[in-house]
Amino acid sequence: MPKEAIVWLVFIIAAGSLEAVTQQIVSIWFAVAALFAFVGALLGLPTAVNIALFTVASCALLAALRPIAYRLIRTPARERPAPNPTNADRAVGGTALVLSDVGGGKVGAVKILGLEWSAVPDGDLIIRAGELARVVAIEGVKLVVEPAREPAAAVR
User: Fold this and answer.
1) What are φ and ψ of residue 123, in 5° steps?
2) Does residue 34 contact residue 8 with C-beta atoms inside 8 Å?
3) How far is residue 2's CA from residue 30's CA, in Å, rounded to a whole number?
4) Are residue 120 and residue 58 in the same domain, yes or no?
5) What is the pTM of this model?
6) Across the chain, how many H-helices and E-strands are there?
7) CA 86 to chain CA mean position, Å
8) Helix-strand-coil split of the chain, %, nearest 5
9) Reduced to 3 states, what is the DSSP secondary structure of residue 90?
10) Distances in Å between the alpha carbon of 46 and those of 14, 26, 39, 86, 119?
11) If you placed Cys at 137, which of 34, 76, 133, 144 could pair as Cys (CB 3.0 to 4.6 Å)?
12) Per the structure, how many domains does the chain have?
């Protein structure tokens, strides 16, 4: 086997491995294009011809097949399953008691539904301990809160 063919074979393996790891539908086209150059090297074609084969095949495969592959693989948003709600989602929209100041660059604490949560403000607000806050969202393990506009009948 000619040395140039070995180089193209190594390139095929490397590009294929990279595609297997990243799964971005990019390097697979280069692996297939390198297959053309590998065959050219086995047939004894000059290096410049093999590089031209690789370049033309890469461009053609990327232009023609990549959009088709993306359409086949990507799931439209309307077909994606909705995220599974959790018990924590019950806190969103509820009123919480602020246990320690929320805002001012600090993560505070609130109590809602009988549980204590870390909390951050929605914006550049400071909500003082003892005040009530409305839960706007959940980000990771923290509640995003804003000052409550109306007092809650009961904060659990």
Assistant:
1) 110, -155
2) yes
3) 21
4) no
5) 0.47
6) 3, 7
7) 21
8) 45, 25, 30
9) helix
10) 23, 27, 12, 63, 67
11) 144
12) 2
- What pLDDT, on the 0 to 100 scale, is given for residue 75? 59
Q: Which of 47-61, 80-94, 140-154 has the highest mean pLDDT?
A: 47-61
Domain of 33 in residue numbering reads as 3-78
Quote the radius of gyration of the chain (alpha carbons, Å). 29
Mean pLDDT within 63-76: 76
Who contacts 103 (Cβ-Cβ below 8 Å, separation ≥6)?
A: 120, 121, 124, 125, 126, 127
DSSP state letter for 45: -
Burial of residue 155 (CB within 10 Å: 0-12, 13-18, 19+) is middle
Contact 58, 33 (CB under 8 A): yes
Looking at the structure, tell me whether residues 53 and 98 fall in a common domain: no
- Looking up tokens 């204590």 gives 116
* pLDDT at 56 (0 to 100): 96
- Assign 80 a pLDDT band (cuts: 50, 70, 90): low
- Do 102 and 128 belong together in one domain? yes
